[in-house]
Amino acid sequence: MTDERDIGGPRQPLLQVRDLLKHFPLKGKGLPFASPRSAVRAVDGVNFDILKGETLGVVGESGCGKSTTARVLMQLINQDSGELVFDGETVGSRALPLRQFRRQTQMVFQDSYSSLNPRMTIEDSIAFAPTVHGLPPREAITRARDLLARVGLQPERFAGRYPHELSGGQRQRVNIARALALEPRLVILDEAVSALDKSVEAQVLNLLLDLKQEFGLTYLFISHDLNVVRFISDRVLVMYLGQVVEIGSSDQVFDRPKHPYTRALLKSMPSMDPLQRTMEAPLAGDPPNPINPPGGCRFHTRCAYAQTVCSQRAPTFSSDDAGHGVACLRYEADTASLFAHASSEVSHA
Amino acid sequence: MISYLIRRVLYAMPIMLGVAFLCFMLVHIAPGDPLVAILPPDASVDLQKQLMELYGFNRSYPEQFFSWVWRAMHGDLGSSIATGRPVAQEVFKAVGNTFMIAALATLIGFFFGALFGFVAGYFRNSWVDKIASFISVVGVSVPHYWLGMVLVIIFSSQLMWLPATGAGPDGSAAWIWDFEHVKYLIMPAVTMSFIPMGIIARTVRALVADILSQEFVIGLKARGLGEFGVFRHVVKNCAPTAMAVMGLQLGYLLGGSILIETVFSWPGTGFLLNQAIFQRDLPLLQGTILVLALFFVSLNLLVDILQTVFDPRIERA
Amino acid sequence: MSTLQATAATPATSAVTPPAYKRSRGHWANVAARIVRNPLAMTAAVILLALIGVAVFAPWIMPADPFATSMFTRLKPIGTPGHVFGTDELGRDLLSRLMLGGRLSLFMGITPVLMAFVIGSGIGIFAGYAGGFINTAIMRTIDVLYAFPSVLLAIALSGALGAGIVNALTSLTIVFIPQIARIAESVTTQVRRSDYVDAARASGASAFTIVRAHVLGNVLGPIFVYSTSLISVSMILASGLSFLGLGVKPPEPEWGLMLNTLRTAIYTQPWVAALPGAFIFITSISFNMLSDGLRSAMEVKQ
Questions:
Q1: Which of B147, A41, A3, B132 is nearest to C281 (CA)?
Q2: DSSP secondary structure string, A160-172?
Q3: Which chain A residues touch C10 with a CB distance below 8 Å?
Q4: Nearest CA distance, B11 vs chain A (angstrom)
Q5: A68 to chain B, closest Cα gap in Å
Q6: Do residues A330 and A336 touch, judged by C-beta distance below 8 A?
Q7: Cβ distance A195 to C14 under 8 Å?
Q8: Is B196 within 8 Å of B249 (Cβ atoms)?
Q9: Residues A71-84: pLDDT tens digits?
Q10: What's this model's pTM, rounded to 2 decimal places?
Q11: Who among A132, A136, A161 is closest to C203 (CB)?
Q12: Is B317 helix (H, G, I), strand (E, B) or coil?
């Protein structure tokens, strides 16, 4: 389907994220005016592309920087360095000012209740963004009601209600409707279904798939639930301590994981088969501190395959021809041989 | 934590400077010439000039401010225009008197306030709670100067048990800890105790009710802790905040004693303030307000620090 | 392709006003419903309405001239025929003076809080939304004022400015501004951090629009409730100022001033002398009960 707002064509990634950096300086522990000694390195050099029409899943443990990345993408937080390129135009440049970018990218938050103004009716909340961009109030209300119907909430019953009068699942539908009110092209879903009951979660996921089809949307789906990510994503990105460690299609990452962290994550998913029991924890230790990440490869302290070189040298990210990318010294030409017995595992799918 | 303490003290410095500045500005926004109060109406221009020189009113404001602060830091608050005696002396004598009734009032208020608050919180929503809560609302709402008058009516005029005004027989200012003198102490202190009583009762009630409603209390009881044990536990948890409130109330009473001291003619800082205002005695006014305000700031600082030391749960960024 | 534009069912919708669907009961309607069921708060409200009513209509319902002095009828006790509440030290009818005095006392209690509400909220909301350095600078300045105990500040300011109604109102307003500004800043900062404000920012709205549409509605409520709890303090302080001779000047009737002038009468007519204060007390406690009731009504978790 052709979108009249499409500038770059189907091959142009919808959003390119280049060398994104965001550190939060730690202050207050020392005397005032003393320079901050350390910082939380929430996003530490993140690069990836979101292709048009795809659903890109993002997984990782708490504290790996997924949510911060999402907020930087939405420009709710400004990055320290790095740039965003939306459909070929740099965000914030004269060709694509921030306000225009905001019309095309929207976000659904995790907490369905705190995302809605408790003093506004549902339809007013949804209609707010369009009115900000110039739509007359009557049309905005009409659009809000159409969207409510589209997400499965009857306008006659729900339009005049307040957030506290709805269930979690219903509220999240409202949030989705609100995100669609500006007719965006990219929707970022930050743990959007994580707080819902499983049955409700399934309904909302199906709704998201329908809406994506109907409106030609592109999704960035952040979650810690691997099953859900597998279900909904075309490609998957794995983050660890503020960096991207692996990226690939859903099948590639879930069936043939390259990075040891991804492998460990997959192994830690409980199996439905009672005969397959996890006898030991696949990942040792607590997630290290984003304030002081380990030297060299950040994962080496918990990695089952770690060699000496891993503590000395940080891996660089590279992709193979199939588009399956990873940042691990086991796959780099000059160091692969050091992982002798491990390489045999690599060749097995 | 040490760094927090240092920062807290450092933060108090600009506040104190600001307070001093405000005290200084106060008397200069006063309409009318400050010298009018002391000069006879037919004073010669020379005499006026001399006095202006003496009191420094002819210099620029920043000069006056800094020299005033400088001298204050050395304990010299100037001399009272009305009596000629050094302000610092007057103020410190008065502070002692105010402190007596304020401290006593705080203790009384804390005792009854904690009592009512505890009872109200423990038996939440019962009739006991309603009565105790009502008493605390009364404490907070009553105009204390009126209450003083009522107490004087009842205990001095009608029953003749206690003296109505002053700090000692025949209006003497010398204090001795005997029953004769203590009689004068009782009514002002009791009158003053109502407001802290009300506030502490409210605070304690909320604290107790909050603690009791938390789930860990059920956990404690499930593990066999008796009523008395729970009681001790609640006290331990309430104590830091309750003590902090008490400290703050003491500060308020010290600073805000003027109304009660006026009713009872108690020779404290409030009384001094009253005099200073009506005689337009600027050095005395400035000096008294400065001492009281700085006292209050220091007390707040102390309470803050103690609270952090005793209650590890308080997170200080 | 947007389905929204292709909805065939409603062509040319811009001219048609969408039907009004039933709106649920809003926040304030809920609060009102709850407070009405609170007997203490309702009693207080009735008392206050009565007092305000009497004060407003005083000139027409006063039994006697509040300024008419008489040396023959000085300090008559309560229940004297013709003077139900007795007379004061200058022979003036106390009931009439109480009624008329209510005007000034109530006025001087409510006005400073009202003005401080407007000014303090403005400062606090601005500082709270702006955040960062601006917030720190503003709030630290406010802290200097807040560093004084209220009574001391009120008296110091009044003492400096001199007696008179306007001066008293000014000094009281200044006393209350820091307290309200603090609450306003605190609540605004909280709201500023919430997801729905982020969502509003994400939709490209300007700061002004966000404050108007999202922040105010959530912030003014708590600030208002806090302010109502200050009215009783304001009344007591205002009357206290008059009691000291710093507020209202004689012969205007005002409850605090009346207490002052009647002080000497406590030995001869104690109950008459105590009456004005009793009224301050009743008004103050009623405002507090109402404020408490309002707070409980708002605190219910929805």
A1: B147
A2: T--GGGS-HHHHH
A3: 142
A4: 10
A5: 22
A6: yes
A7: no
A8: yes
A9: 999 999 888 889 99
A10: 0.85
A11: A132
A12: coil
